[in-house]
Amino acid sequence: MHGIRLARTTRDLDLAVTADGGLDTVRTILLNAGLTATGIPHRFRTEDGGEIDVLAMDPAHEPLHEILVADDHRIWGVGLAEAVDHSVGIRLEEHSFPVAPLSLLIATKLWTAALGTRAHDLADACVAMESYELLGTRRFDIDYTQQRDLTFETAGAFLAGLDAASLATAVTRASIVDAIDVLLASDLFSDRLADGPRQGDLVRAYRKGIRSVEESR
Questions:
Q1: Which pairing describes strands 66-70 and 88-92: parallel, antiparallel, or unpaired?
Q2: What's the CA dihedral at 190, 191, 195, 201 to 10 degrees?
Q3: Which single residue of 14, 30, 161, 165 could bond 206 by disulfide (Cβ 3.0 to 4.6 Å)?
């Protein structure tokens, strides 16, 4: 929806929503709308076979980013509440859809990548950071003499970090920075890996963007 060309395809749609009662409330709405339940509590199937994974946050539950999908199953969705609050309208044919801001999608993917359970999330985040703000003038507006550790190629990641930090709460910002520190302490960005150094530079630039907002407050 954001025009980012990934090297993989996905077969499901992730739906993030805040609702009193969380998943129980949303489940009733979706089933009444004609969707079918599956063996996975938060996954539903459309009439044409499409799959929707529902990440339903209950505003009364603490912490908000802990999503209850079953008695013994919880999902952590750092940044999703802000993504819902600050969703952007993207038009597809005659319809407009609320979509999470790209800067926060990057944050959620970096946070998930730090868990080590979804290897493709880091690659997705890096492709999005490389593409961020390629149009317009924002990359050219950066004073690279003052930001010597940035290049034009990593400036998009820096701007994405700035934008994510301006939308996220202090708790979310801290969680994202902690996740990035976990990634940077790993061997994912080793010179022995073809994409390691490039991805490492992008992740560090994104962290710099978030920290720049923190330091200015």
A1: unpaired
A2: 70
A3: 161
Q: How far is CA 122 from the centre of its chain?
A: 11
* Dihedral sign (CA 199, 167, 101, 41): positive
DSSP states of 126-167 = HHHHHHTT-SSSHHHHS-TTT-TT--HHHHHHHHHHHHHHHH
Which of 63-67, 82-86, 90-94, 100-104 comes out lowest in average pLDDT? Answer: 63-67
Question: Count of residues for the chain?
Answer: 217
> Omega of the bond prior to 98 within 30 degrees of 0, cis?
no
Radius of gyration of the chain (CA): 18
The structure tokens listed for 194 are: 């073809």
CA–CA separation, 81 and 86 (whole Å): 9
Predicted confidence (pLDDT) per residue in 13-27, tens digit: 899 999 999 899 999
Where are the domains positioned within the chain?
12-77, 102-216
How is residue 69 written in tokens?
Answer: 């999908």
Tokens of 182: 């976990």
The structure's pTM equals 0.90
